[in-house]
Amino acid sequence: MHIQLSSASASSTLAASRNKVLRNTYWLLALSLLPTLAGALIGVQVNFSFMRASPIVSSLVMMAAIYGLMFAVEKNRDNSAGVGLMLALTFVMGLLLGPLLQTALSLRNGGQLISLAAAGTSAAFFALAAIATVSKRDFSFLNKFLTVGAVVLMVAVVANIFLQLPALHLTLCVGFILFSSAVILFQIKQVIDGGETSYVSATLTLYVSLYNIFSSLLQLLMAFGGERD
Fold first, then answer.
1. Is residue 222 helix, strand or coil?
2. Domain coordinates in residue numbering, the chain
């Protein structure tokens, strides 16, 4: 009887710990949207002509800055500094949405496309989160797919920085949406099952996935539904 009670108590404590990680992840993810919005509002006012003048150099510098901040967040995943670095990263990411938002807003229906991309991203997240929460299935099989997918996408992104092929760019947008959706499903399930114990790290993964879905979806909507004057 004592052993059964101890086992039940341990299970209850473990479940509470996992729920806390998931709850903190969702809170930090929601909070991260505020600096993203602030950065985006500033970004639409900034003149990014220097990036258009040297797109290859600008893209490589931008990637280095983003991955540098991501590395810093991961290094501080278990302390309060990680939260501050996470918010700093999301501000920079919002700022870097500037050129894309400027291009979208130059279209007659640009505002509608931005709203549609945001709504689509939100719907995808809530649907994937619901599936991960209620499903009893083990999604660890996605790990190998995600590893290969990340390498393929990164190689294709770097290649297209130099090639600048519109067809490849649109293919990458579709690829990022599918890949990021799988990442969200996998990451939330990892938190629920106890495979991820840092809410900072989990938030970073989910945030980047949402960012990629939104920006990729917006670019597809602009390509196929943008109304130019």
1. helix
2. 15-225
